[in-house]
Every structure is written in C-alpha cells, then in structure tokens.
C-alpha cells in the first residue's frame, strides 16, 4: 500500500486547514514515521483529535496504519525498480511503444488544450519544473517557447527552484513534468502556489491517478512503460514532449494573422 495512492482520491476534498496539515505531512514523512500522534499534533498546533480526524479523512483507519503506510512508502521509494519490458521481443515492444504514443495523443482533452493556448495569449511568464531525464526535455521546451516570444524560466537545481518559487505571480503559468506524480517537492510546490498567488498550474504525468494530477488546474496524462537500465531510468518521454509541442502549436494556430511567420516545408 502506497501513501500517495491512498490519499490521492481525497486530496480535492480537504479544507484549507486540512491542506496545511497535508502539506506538513508531505514535507516531513521521514520524521513523522517515528513520532506519536501527540508529537505530530503538537508540531501542527492542533489537538490529537483533530489530527486523527484528518488521518481518517485522507483514507486511513487510524494513526497506526497511517505511520505504517508511510514507512512502507519510504522504503519502497528506495528499492522500487520495474522489470524491463525487453524480456519480450523487440517487435512486440516496438508495437507497444508506438501504441503508447498514439494513445497519449488521442486522449488529449481538446478543451484543456484550448484553455492553455488561450491563457498563453496573455503572454504570461512560463515557469518549467522538472527533474532527472525530464530536465533535458525541458531544455528543448524552453527553446520552443522562447522562439515564440515567451519569457521562459527553467530553474534546474533545487536551490534555484526554491528562489524562483518566490518570483511567480498569479498571471503566470507553471508546467510540471513528473511521470509518477508523487514527488514530494512538486506536491509542496503546488501546495504553496495554490495557497498564495495561484498561477495556472499545468502538469503532465502518467495516466495513473496521482497527487500532482489532482492538485493541478489542468492535467495531461501519457501512457508509457517505465524502463530502468543499470538502475538508471530510461523511460521514453516522447509522449510528454508531444503534448508540450501540441500546446504550442495550438497557441500558434489561434494567434492573430501576421503575428507569427510559420513556414512549412
């Protein structure tokens, strides 16, 4: 049982005060796993009854199950590694690879695509957030949107991301790329932005229900197989890139005549 899988369906139902408790829990999973409910409640400046009510609201039968699942989740994050699909034939995997890309594009919600494109017409500052392999993808995305005349900010390390968060305004747009959608840093980022300036929050995640997906204003999801080679992730990110390109193309398609000089060869 994974902590984020349990709480996912219930995040949208939390009150503002409960969101603050959720934010504290996500930031302090390592410390909470070894604390009593009284200690955690004191840290949050609430009664044990209030915290227990919160624990039950996010899907746990009690505090004991709550901490047990947290411990399991933290342990699983360190050891999780999926079996490579290359145990099947190259032809089978090639067909599955292409099917994933086609399906990711086919299921894109046109209204969400249009909503992001319309928001881009206001020429917001674009903030890009990504880690790991997604950072290389985001470099290309930064190039694309900069070529279209946007101011694009892409902080690549955690210290810079912390600084940049303070510069985001309500009229800006934030893109977050995360396949699993349960990275604690991204959850904290979304929580902070939703509770303060609240720019347009757009995420691209895996198709499985996840916290980042539920906390975003607009979510696009992709289908892919997670791959690891010598304990390093080599999962295909082509579908994520396709969605970001389609967002830009949708914006360009709706731009005023003569605003952009596009040449198709």
Summarize the structure.
The chain has 265 residues and is an alpha/beta fold. 53% of the residues lie in helices and 10% in strands.
Q: Which series of helices and strands comes N to C?
A: HHHHHHHHEHEHEHEHEEEH
**What multimeric state do the chains show?**
single chain
The overall pLDDT, averaged over residues, is 85
Q: Count of DSSP helices?
A: 13
Using the alpha-carbon principal axes, give the shape: globular
End-to-end span in angstroms?
52 Å
Low-confidence stretches: 80-88
What fraction of the residues are assigned to beta strands by DSSP? 5-15%
Strand order within the widest beta sheet: 2-1-3-4-5
Major beta sheet summary: 5 strands, parallel
**Radius of gyration, rounded?**
20 Å
Helix content: 40-55%
Structural class: alpha/beta
Number of strands: 7
